[in-house]
Amino acid sequence: MLKFNLKYIIISLRIELTVFLIMITSLLLFIGVCKTNISSDGVGYYDYLPSAFIHNDLYRNNTSISSRIDSMSVYVDINGVKVNKFNAGVAILQLPFFSIALAASKFFYDGIITGYEIIFQKSMFIGALFYYFISLVFLRKALQLYKISGISILVTLFLYGLATNAIQYINNEATFSHVYCMFLVTVFIYLIKKLQLGYRKRYIYFISIIIGLLLITRLVDALIILSVPFIVGNLNDLKQMIKNVFLHKTPIIISLIIFLLFVSIQPVLWYMQSGSILIDTYQYEKFNFFKPEFINFWFSYRKGLFLYTPITLISILLGITLLYKKEQYLALSFLLFFLIVSYALSCWWSWWYSCGYGQRAFISYYPVIFVFYALSLDSLNGLIKKIIIFISLLTIPINHIQARQYKNFILNWEDMNYIKYWNVFLSNSNRFIGFNNKLIMNEDYLKINKRIKINDRLVLPQTKVKIVETDLPLFEKGYVVKVTNYDYFGYNNRANLELCLQDNGGDTLYSKKITYTNLTNTLLGNQTQGSYYFKLPGNLNNSKLSLTIKTLQTAVRFKNAMFIIYEIR
After folding, report:
1. Is 413 inside any structural domain?
2. Which domain holds residue 254?
3. How far is residue 232's CA from residue 245's CA, in Å, rounded to a whole number?
């Protein structure tokens, strides 16, 4: 009996399992699984768990701040008390996986554990994978309720699971809120559709749990409520569903109590940390509702939604073009929802949402976009449908290449632009690792210590030559070295520059190698004045600094080149 059930489960989930295995394979063999899965903002979302179950420092009101908390940037100072900047919803969803890791850690670690050991890192990775997979399951179940054809569901699930930047937030940023909110939204869509098709009080209860969790995970994602008119599909059904809900008073009261119980978790945690139940932990980070950044949010090279996740643009253009003629309500209700969410998210003071792959703020709403895509695709037939499917599927390899570029620092994590994007477009060559992460310095805060003119010369192919060697003067605050040159920076030039710092005994104190073309500040394939900054540590007495060029198949010409040593003021 057990074997039969397992076989049935595998068959019923064959699409989701296939997508899941492709994603895992890509992570293992192409993109690369990160060693650290709890990082950056994800530390804040996660730290409720080690704080409560390992360090016992969650309750801090009127108590001294632990050195552990005082050293963590995810805690902000509120009236002299350190408070976790991020909400606790993610930690609640992570709790089962954290519990398993905590129990297992007792067998693997003898000393004091912190909650950030490898077993905890990988348990969070597995947790993110789990919610990603369950999100696929609920999206399929929701699409089936719309009576969408099997082929349209198949294509949609492949695109949903493989063609978006959500893949990054399963990997390195596995404890960010995005995948967890994406899971909650797919469940929300499924429950609303079930409620429309037939009233059951349990749907009301589960919906109240989902909305409550969304509010204490990422407050702005509660905007998903505005997608209900689109999810239902037509105005008459929407009116009937609302009428059915309000005909039953007791379930409404119970669901409201359930909702308040979940929402109250965050104020209780704030009170435990600070003695206050309402806190603005984001303090000076605000929405500017009079200055939406629609164009940047959608199209910019920095973090444009449509540029880094092009399937979203295909979905919207396809849906609006096709559905408007046949299903105006569907098209207009979706478009209105999309515009409201885009408006809200683009009004955040940092519309690019700091470091991240693509427009990560929109990940939570992908389930709605892919329902729209599936409905649009299902309205097509014949050759046109095949062409749309083919074009759509091309976004999968594009997404995985860009995800690998992001992981390997080929895409700048925060500050991409037109030049940086096209210089490395869909390239995963190792010579581009770090290419777009050049150090930017304000020379107003630097003082020139030594300026050396590099002799004009042609360095032939297959040559290694030291072009600068000088003593490094002592300066406590550190140094910045700037190398400039006027040359043709060709795309195929694979020469390397290496800056090396050695003591009098010949031991290397610092070494950094860059691709020669990294000097360029314009598109590759142009003759221009290029530059690059190297930042050195301070307190380096009696050391020598050298710059070496190693050419491969292409010659390098030095013209009007300079080697400048700056002191940091």
Report:
1. no
2. 2-29+121-403
3. 14
Domain C-terminal end among 403, 433, 460: 403
Confirm whether 389 is domain-assigned: yes
Helix (H, G, I), strand (E, B) or coil at 532: strand
Q: In what side-by-side order are the strands of the sheet with 496-503?
A: 464-472, 543-550, 496-503, 508-515
Task: Provide the domain count of the chain.
Answer: 2
Structure tokens at 420: 């940086």
Secondary structure (H, E, C), 170-227: CCCCCCCCHHHHHHHHHHHHHHHHHHHHCCCHHHHHHHHHHHHHHHCCCHHHHHHHHH
Q: Spell out the alpha helix ranges (H) of 216-309.
A: 228-232, 235-246, 249-263, 265-274, 294-299, 305-308
Sheet holding 561-568, edge to edge: 446-454, 561-568, 479-489, 526-536
pLDDT in tens, 346-377: 999 999 999 999 999 999 999 999 999 999 99
CATH of the domain at 521: 2.60.120.660
* 240 & 163 share domain: yes
Are 397 and 538 contained in the same domain? no
Nearest to 303 by CA among 242, 352, 364, 339: 352
Confidence of residue 1 (pLDDT cuts 50, 70, 90): very low
